[in-house]
Amino acid sequence: MNTTMRNAGMLIAAAAAVALFSIPSPTPWNPYEISMGERLLPPGTEHWLGTDHLGRDLLARIIAGARPTIGIGLAVLLVSIAIGVPLGLLSGMKGGRTDSIFKPIIDGFMTFPDYLSAIILSALLGPGLMSMLIAVIAVKWVRYARLARSVALAEKEKDYAAMALLSGLSPVRLVLKHILPHAMGHVAALAAADLGKIILLMASLSYLGLGSQPPAPEWGSMLSEGRAYFHAAPHLMLAPGLAVMAAVLLAGFAGNRLRDRYDVKLKGGAE
Amino acid sequence: MLAISKLSIRSGSQELVRSLSLELQDGEWLGLAGESGSGKSLTAAAIGGLLPRPLSCSGSILWNGLELLRLDAKSRRRLLGSEISYVFQDYRNTFTPFLTIGSQLTELLEAHLSLAARDRRQRCLEELEQAGLPAERVFGSYPYQLSGGQLQRAAIAAALLLRPKLLIADEPTTALDSLSSRKVLGLLDAAKSRFGISIIWITHDLRHARRHADRIAVMRTGSIVETGSARQVLEHPAHPYSRRLIASIPPLRREMPERLAASAGLEGEDPLDHPR
Q1: What are the beta bridge partners of residue B3?
Q2: What is the CATH number of the domain that holds A229?
Q3: Which of A165, A178, A271 shows the shortest C-beta gap to B50?
């Protein structure tokens, strides 16, 4: 994919994010307002994307759903990083017994596919937004822990780390000032690519009825609600489906762009 | 000042440094010579308390009466950088790649002294100047923006910043061209005469030893086989291994009788490379 396309992707993603999060209510329709007389209307001039099985404007619901879907996705991502990176750094830097506790946990989580672990966890915790969040974070932090651990393992062997310690700097300072920034470059690249996956994972859990519950407008649960009417009104599934797809693609473009920009390994290993 | 006695470093059952004893006087420049894997760098790491994890050591390293092998982490941190400092061979990795030289030098001052920000900066600039570098430019540069020789001189500036009493230089000139090496050695010489710093200069190249070192200790497979004044060791090596080591120096070989170089047998020993 060429740079122009990726830049365009970044721009669209940024514009969409700004629009969705800054404009209080971009449509005249209330995403919660039920109007039984206007059930399952096809896309038209009044309701651009049509209405759902309770006569609610679909566009208003898609837009209202963007905030929980993308916003919660971002929050989940940040929490996963906040848990994973410190634990990974600790495990990698300390080595020895600490590492022998963390490594099997990390490897254990990595053995199962994200979806499987997330479904099992949120099913165990019971349906609901909170249990879905916990399940997704529980699945995702491991990747960041593993990444930070491997960065710490590699960097602590380098002369500059030994030099910092031999100059009387404390290990905490070494990690915070000399190793954490190293890890954050890699983490940013992984995170940008991961946002799309998290959105998709949460939408899937909601679709299965394990995530956010009706009447909250969330793309995954909207897909789930639309399933019953797929033959009569396919737009009920198409609209949120396309929204998920667009969000995942745009997050992916942005991620690739960030990775190209900051991942020194792709630039031929120059440091 | 520094007295190492019966230092042994073990990796499992293998003894990498064997009952090594060594003394260093105030203001003395000691060349610690020997091939790769003879335990030179491990000895240096043991002084700083930075042996890689699976290695264990026993014996004693006394620093002005203080037992370094049984020092708690905090006292060790106070000592390192301010009284004992290091220069490594690989100048490209001495500094953290994404921080400016200036911020790394000031960080050192911050860790050991309480100085105002402006004084810290001034002190770093002076030290870089002393090292013969364009101080302002180097202060604001990232490591990759400097040449190898400049980086190594900046590393020496960092090592001398807190006026340590002992500098452990682990092959500081090996990766440099001969002109840069001379500059680096000149800097160490100047530091020695300016504030009487002692230097442990780890090397496998004895070319510069005659001019700079006061004393030479020759190490082989974890023990010191010979110590003496630089002149004595270089001109009248007593141990066969020292003779071979000296015979293997290209510029000196010409000065040696052909017969000696041949009889020394220059075939390589096992070049067991230890992790630093």
Answers
A1: B23, B62
A2: 1.10.3720.10
A3: A165
Burial label for B52, CB within 10 Å (0-12, 13-18, 19+), is: middle
Contact A159 B93 (CB under 8 A): yes
Residue of B77, B92, B100 best to disrupt the A interface, most CBs of A under 10 A: B77
Angle in degrees, 0-180, between the axes of helices A114-125 and A180-207, rounded to the nearest 10: 60
| Distance from the A196 Cα atom to the nearest Cα atom in chain B, whole angstroms | 29
CATH classification at residue B204: 3.40.50.300
Overall domain count for chain B:
1
Contacts by A89-94 with C-beta closer than 8 Å and gap 24+? A89/A148, A89/A149, A89/A151, A89/A152, A89/A175, A89/A179, A89/A180, A89/A183, A91/A145, A91/A149, A91/A152, A92/A148, A92/A149, A92/A150, A92/A151, A92/A152, A92/A153, A92/A156, A93/A152, A93/A156, A93/A171, A93/A175, A93/A179
Q: How far is B77 from chain A (nearest CA, A)?
A: 4
Omega cis (within 30) before A215: yes
Per DSSP, A51 falls in state B
Torsion of CA A67, A71, A76, A78, to 10 degrees: 180
Find out whether A195 and B130 touch, Cβ atoms under 8 Å: no
Question: Residue A144 falls within a domain, yes or no?
Answer: yes
Nearest to A168 among B77, B96, B97 (CB): B77
Q: Count the Cβ atoms, other than its own, within 10 Å of residue A33.
A: 12
Residue B4 lies in a domain: no
Per-residue pLDDT of chain B (276 residues; tens, 9 = 90+): 899 999 999 988 888 999 999 999 999 999 998 888 888 889 999 999 888 878 888 999 999 989 999 889 899 999 998 999 999 888 888 999 889 999 999 999 999 999 899 999 999 999 999 999 999 999 999 999 999 889 999 999 999 999 999 999 988 888 888 888 888 889 999 999 988 899 999 987 777 777 889 999 999 888 999 999 988 888 888 889 888 888 877 654 455 555 555 555 544 333 333 343
The boundaries of the domain holding residue A162 are 50-265
Residue closest to A201 by CA, chosen among A189, A219, A215: A219
pTM of the model: 0.79
In B, residues 103-132, which contact A (CB 8 Å cutoff)? 107-108, 111-112
How many structural domains are present in chain A? Answer: 1
Kindly list the distances between the CA atom of residue A95 and the CA atoms of A37, A91, B46, in Å, as whole numbers in the listed order.
Answer: 66, 6, 19
